[in-house]
């Protein structure tokens, strides 16, 4: 709050100084008969262009228009003073033109920034022509001062413009990375649930004739998986639409959610068990818990896709030396009855490894010595 109020005080002081300088110009120009009104028009246009509040500017009042119109008026005033009689220039007009030069360099589009800045610079350099047309030495001295002021203004405005560009690029990259992460979350959740629907549908078809009494739990599992898939997509779409509270809508996962994954995975054909060591703490960082959840989710999805003959899947959570160990193993020999389109493109483990290594962890996946496949992740706790 203090920094905001201090910034407001500086802004108010700057406005007051600019208005006071413009008033000095008006008073000085009014002393010369016949030359007051042109300068008054320049000061009025320039002050309006500089001080018009940004939130109240009409759409047509573009940075180009703000920079060009007062500069053209100043040049016409200079030409008029040369033709009619010498006129003074004051600090107000000089400050306004430098402010508009700043606006041109920082805010004008690339296609017009050079033209607008050149026009404002020319108006600044033309100011000494009014009173010193007959004294070349003084005129050149004031022009040299004008060059220095122009250079400082352009350098400062160009620096801020480069910072604006870097900030825009950083924000764009952050948004892109966040949307890619959201897309990965959507893939993980939906692929997991839809694969489960496919497997349980196949089980239901096999049991339709032989095990009608056991069919209802399978159908309930299909309904639950479809509901969770729709909920995941709804949460993700809510984030992509920039909802007011995206944190509550983003798909999340933690250690507690792993039990729900295993319950949803289990079927009459495939059994799944969870072994969680008592040493595993409940207050691990959220990103570590989310990564562990994704490891289990991707491993279970791959069991459904590539090890349909597996009868036992074991998920283990251990904690030792400030590291969380997540293991998912099965006893399958490989093979799947899923359609080819449901096998996936093989990028799940690649993305999972990127997620784990980004946290400083390790991920290993490969065949077990006796039989089956194992995925093992070590995450810093």
UniProtKB/TrEMBL annotation:
Residues 290-380 form the Histidine kinase/HSP90-like ATPase domain. Residues 178-244 form the Signal transduction histidine kinase subgroup 3 dimerisation and phosphoacceptor domain. It is an enzyme of class 2 (transferase). The chain crosses the membrane at residues 88-105, 112-133, 139-160. GO terms for molecular function: ATP binding; phosphorelay sensor kinase activity; protein dimerization activity. Pfam families: HATPase_c, HisKA_3. It catalyses: ATP + protein L-histidine = ADP + protein N-phospho-L-histidine. GO terms for cellular component: membrane. Its EC number is 2.7.13.3. This is histidine kinase.
């Amino acid at each position: 709050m203090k920094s905001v109020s201090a910034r407001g005080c500086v802004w108010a002081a700057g406005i007051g100084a600019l208005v006071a300088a413009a008033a000095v110009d008006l008073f000085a120009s009014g002393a010369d008969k016949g030359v007051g009104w042109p300068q008054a028009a320049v000061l009025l246009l320039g002050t309006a262009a500089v001080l018009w509040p940004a939130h109240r500017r009409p759409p047509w009042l573009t940075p180009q228009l703000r920079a060009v119109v007062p500069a053209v008026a100043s040049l016409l005033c200079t030409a008029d003073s040369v033709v009619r009689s010498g006129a003074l220039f004051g600090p107000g007009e000089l400050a306004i033109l430098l402010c508009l030069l700043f606006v041109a360099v920082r805010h004008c589009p690339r296609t017009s920034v050079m033209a607008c800045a050149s026009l404002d610079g020319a108006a600044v350099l033309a100011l000494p022509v009014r009173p010193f047309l007959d004294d070349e030495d003084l005129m050149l001295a004031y022009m040299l001062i004008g060059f220095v002021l122009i250079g400082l203004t352009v350098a400062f405005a160009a620096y801020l413009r480069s910072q604006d560009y870097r900030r825009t690029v950083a924000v764009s990259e952050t948004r892109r990375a966040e949307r890619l992460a959201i897309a990965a979350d959507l893939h993980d959740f939906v692929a997991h649930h839809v694969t489960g629907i496919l497997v349980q549908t196949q089980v239901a078809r096999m049991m339709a004739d032989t095990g009608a009494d056991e069919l209802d739990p399978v159908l309930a599992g299909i309904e639950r998986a479809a509901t969770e898939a729709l909920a995941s997509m709804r949460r993700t779409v809510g984030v992509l639409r920039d909802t007011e509270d995206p944190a509550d809508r983003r798909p999340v996962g933690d250690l507690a959610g792993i039990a729900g994954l295993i319950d949803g995975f289990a079927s009459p054909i495939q059994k799944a068990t969870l072994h969680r060591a008592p040493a595993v703490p409940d207050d691990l960082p959220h990103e570590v818990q989310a990564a562990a959840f994704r490891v289990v989710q991707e491993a279970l999805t791959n069991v459904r896709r590539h090890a349909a003959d597996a009868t036992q899947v074991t998920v283990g959570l251990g904690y030792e030396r400030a590291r969380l160990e997540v293991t998912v193993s099965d006893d399958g020999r490989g093979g799947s009855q899923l359609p080819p389109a449901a096998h996936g493109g093989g990028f799940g483990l690649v993305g999972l490894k990127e997620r784990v290594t980004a946290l400083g962890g390790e991920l290993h996946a490969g065949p077990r010595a006796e039989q089956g496949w194992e995925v093992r992740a070590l995450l810093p706790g």
